[in-house]
Write a structure and sequence with these properties.
The protein has about 325 residues and is an alpha+beta fold. The protein is built from 5 helices and 12 strands. The strands form 2 sheets. Strands 1, 3, 6, 8, 9, 10, 11 and 12 form an 8-stranded antiparallel sheet that branches. It has a 4-stranded antiparallel sheet with strand order 5-4-2-7. Strand 9 and strand 10 form a beta hairpin. Helix 3 packs antiparallel against helix 4. The protein is rod-shaped and about 185 Å long.
């Protein structure tokens, strides 16, 4: 074998050994840890305090709405009936207030005055009669019993006259201030009931109280909507964040307030995010149990990141990756 052949063979062997050694070296080197999270955002539920049947849905999934945009309406005959009842009761209470303020009618006042005058006339007649009877009794013409009977009738006439006068004065003066206040208070009670029902009437039409994109329509036209049940949900992608579930032995990589680069495969780009929130997850979360008698169990924590700048094309549910050294 020539010297050249030996040299070539040696070089080849050295190359093969070097390649295999490099492969083994790389294989046993610690690999960077890659964690996967996802994009989440703030959701808002649009519901109604009034139960009823959905009359109209003014949006569809994917629509972008602003504050004050019409979302849906509810048909509730029961609420409309309650409004009529409350309005009728308020009107009746208002009539009582007017009657109390105006007092008795002229005809009632005149009738009360006539009753007083009649009672007064009867009193005067019995007064004269009693004077004559008393004189006759003094002269011994009539018995004491007769004098007492006339005196009793005279006293009764005075009381009747006084009572008739008071009734006339009451009719003339009208209701007492306390009665007027009570009537006004009753009217205010029913006015409050009308306002209450009107507030429920307003609830039959719902408008967006926050801007966002329609994410779900849970109840459709013609279906019954119970009180407080979400009919439409909105998502505000401008109020979004990335969340990861991280074992506690990796938390030292995530310091609140620090900035990290997160990769979003769907957008094929990495963006700077700030660590904004760290909280322990419940017992149901994934955790790693230690071997018996060795170490301790590792809990999972939820770490949230907020993008430093708005990200165009970001959607809820997109995967987010981070590579740890």
């Amino acid at each position: 074998m020539s010297v050249l052949a030996k040299i070539v063979g040696t070089v080849v062997v050295i190359g093969i050994v070097s390649g295999v050694s490099y492969v083994f070296y790389e294989a046993y080197q610690p690999k960077p840890l890659r964690l996967q999270g996802e994009i989440d955002a703030q959701y808002y539920s649009v519901s109604s305090k009034v139960p009823g049947r959905i009359d109209k849905i003014g949006v569809k999934k994917g629509d972008v709405v602003g504050v004050g945009d019409f979302i849906f309406s509810i048909n509730s005959p029961e609420v409309e009936a309650k409004l009529k009842q409350a309005q009728s009761a308020k009107n009746a209470a208002g009539a009582v207030v007017k009657e109390a303020d105006k007092g008795a009618r002229k005809q009632q006042i005149a009738a009360a005055k006539d009753q007083w005058q009649r009672a007064l006339a009867a009193e005067k007649l019995l007064s004269k009669t009693y004077t004559r009877i008393q004189k006759l009794y003094t002269e011994g013409v009539i018995a004491e019993q007769k004098r007492d009977e006339v005196y009793t009738k005279y006293e009764a006439a005075k009381y009747q006259s006084s009572a008739a006068k008071e009734m006339y004065m009451m009719a003339k003066e009208g209701a007492r201030e306390e009665q007027k206040e009570a009537a006004r208070a009753q009217e205010a009670v029913y006015a409050g009931k009308v306002d209450e029902v009107n507030s429920y009437i307003k609830e039959t039409k719902q408008y967006a109280f926050h801007s966002g994109e329609v994410s779900q329509i849970l109840i459709h036209t013609g279906e019954l909507a119970p009180t407080g049940f979400p009919v439409v949900t909105l998502v505000d992608i401008n109020d979004s964040w990335a969340k990861f579930h991280v074992r506690e032995d990796l938390l030292h990589y995530f310091i609140k307030g620090s900035t990290v680069e997160l990769e979003i495969p769907a957008l094929q780009k990495s963006y700077p995010f700030e660590v904004t929130h760290i909280s322990v997850m419940g017992e149901y979360a994934t955790w790693r149990a230690a071997e018996a008698g060795k170490g301790f169990d590792l809990k999972s924590f939820e770490v949230e990141f907020r993008a430093e700048d708005p990200i165009e094309g970001l959607r809820v549910g997109m995967s987010v990756l981070i590579q740890l050294p």
